[in-house]
Design goal:
Its main location: membrane. This is Multidrug-efflux transporter. The protein contains 18 helices and no strands. By secondary structure, it is mostly helical. The chain has one domain. Helix 7 runs antiparallel to helix 8.
């Protein structure tokens, strides 16, 4: 057993070297969200509930957009394996335009939701808080999508530390801005939840500008800049980016949509349940981000080895990713088990909300292994540009199984918020089984 694990040492090292900077950068964003939740929750429970609704809806679309931007990863990895740096610069240019177009479509859909907020069954007292925060968050999506292209570029060429520092800088500025604008410090007005939205908007603009500065000023990026300047936006690149990007976007959207729909269903139960839901989701997002960082590293390596036509290495990298994910699951579940009694009190002093959070944490621990495995497997397939299968698997797992099960258990069987939350482990279990089979068949078909 030890010898088998030791045989994966080089693969663990490769993934950790790539994954840790990505994880740190993403954890910075999550810590910002955590700080948002704590500061808004301390300001008022009603604002925390409003933030829960808006963040779940907006983040579902941001995740879809981010999924679309993942179209760059397999294209960069394959060209990097062949040392085609100028071609990579052209892909970045086409990706920026494709991302901007996609963003406009997402914003149009969100605008429709914004205009119909009254029809979504949320508590009436939250709507005056929801509307302005929703509007500011909606506009900032454009900057998220543009810096996502640069982020995929630097991570795809194995420079994840750049992405890490840009994200950490932006997130630090966001936390400072939150403190000033939420509570009205340094002579600024006390804006509460709206202040958190404005701070996030400004920090996203700054992160985009930092990525642009890095791309324009680094001397070793000269071949990429040459490709960016000389390669035109063209139909072939556009079609390729869309053929990879949209299935990933829809897959990510289906998964995020599950969280969005469950947030809406939890909102039907009341403001306290919605506040507890936001706290539990914020906690779960920390572990999700670690899995996502590992998954991104797996996608970068599998895309590279596909370009090198080394399918044995594709298999080894995927298995190593699953091993590392399992280690993280053990750490996360142990930490949650040891701290579960007081976690909710970090976010709010409302004892009822804390009691609800405590009922959700066992379910959160239950679905960690499924969440980890499905992210690693999906990213392995993403690196291979096998994206349509991921999309259909997600549709079956989340919209056919998870959401109906959550409604059935939550309302038909009267399990309340715990029943709604059971949608997550059920959906992840189905996803892991199907993605695992697909990944196995992909490698097997090329090794035979």
């Amino acid at each position: 057993m030890y010898n088998r694990i030791a045989g994966y040492k080089q693969y663990y090292k490769s993934l950790v070297m790539l994954g840790v900077p990505i994880i740190i950068g993403q954890l910075g964003a999550i810590i910002t969200g955590l700080a948002d939740t704590i500061m808004v929750g301390q300001h008022s429970t009603e604002e925390l509930a409003a933030a829960s609704f808006v963040n779940n809806v907006i983040n579902a679309f941001i995740i879809m957009g981010t999924g679309f931007s993942y179209n760059l990863t397999p294209l960069i990895g394959q060209n990097l394996a062949m040392n085609k740096k100028i071609v990579i610069g052209g892909w970045l240019k086409n990706s920026l335009v494709a991302n901007m177009t996609t963003t406009l479509l997402l914003i149009a859909v969100l605008l429709g939701i914004y205009l119909n907020l009254d029809s979504l069954g949320q508590p009436e007292e939250l709507l005056p808080l929801i509307r302005p925060y929703f509007a500011v968050s909606l506009v900032s999506i454009l900057f998220v999508m543009l810096y996502n292209s640069f982020r995929q570029f630097v991570e795809g060429i194995a420079n994840p530390s750049i992405s890490m520092w840009v994200l950490l800088t932006g997130n630090l500025l966001n936390i400072i801005g939150n403190y000033i604008l939420i509570y009205g410090k340094c002579g600024m007005p006390e804006l509460g939840l709206l202040g958190a939205g404005i701070s996030t908007f400004i920090s996203r603009i700054i992160m985009l500008l930092l990525f642009i500065a890095v791309f324009m000023l680094r001397t070793d990026y000269k071949p990429y800049r040459k490709g960016f300047t000389h390669i035109r936006i063209n139909k072939q690149s556009w079609r390729r980016l869309n053929s990879i990007g949209w299935p990933i976007s829809l897959q990510q959207g289906l998964e995020a949509g599950t969280f969005c729909v469950t947030a809406i269903m939890v909102g039907w139960l009341g403001s306290l349940e919605l506040a507890a839901h936001q706290i539990a989701i914020t906690i779960s997002t920390i572990s999700f981000t670690i899995y996502l960082g590992l998954g991104a590293a797996v996608a970068i390596r599998t895309s590279y080895y596909k370009g090198a036509n080394d399918w044995y290495m594709v298999h080894k990298i995927t298995i190593a990713g699953l091993h590392l994910g399992l280690i993280v699951v053990c750490i996360v579940c142990t930490t949650l088990f040891m701290t579960q009694s007081g976690l909710g009190l970090i976010f709010t002093d409302n004892l009822h909300v804390n009691a609800i959070v405590k009922t959700l944490l066992p379910i959160l621990m239950l679905y960690q292994i499924g969440d980890s495995a499905q992210i690693i497997l999906a990213n392995s397939l993403r690196g291979l540009a096998d994206v349509k299968a991921i999309m259909w698997i997600s549709f079956l797992a989340y919209f056919i199984i998870a959401i109906p099960a959550g409604y059935l258990l939550g309302f038909t069987f009267h399990w309340g918020i715990a029943g709604i939350w059971m949608a997550y482990p059920l959906g992840f279990l189905c996803s892991v089984c199907l993605l695992g089979y697909r990944a196995k068949m992909q490698v097997k078909s090329h090794l035979v």
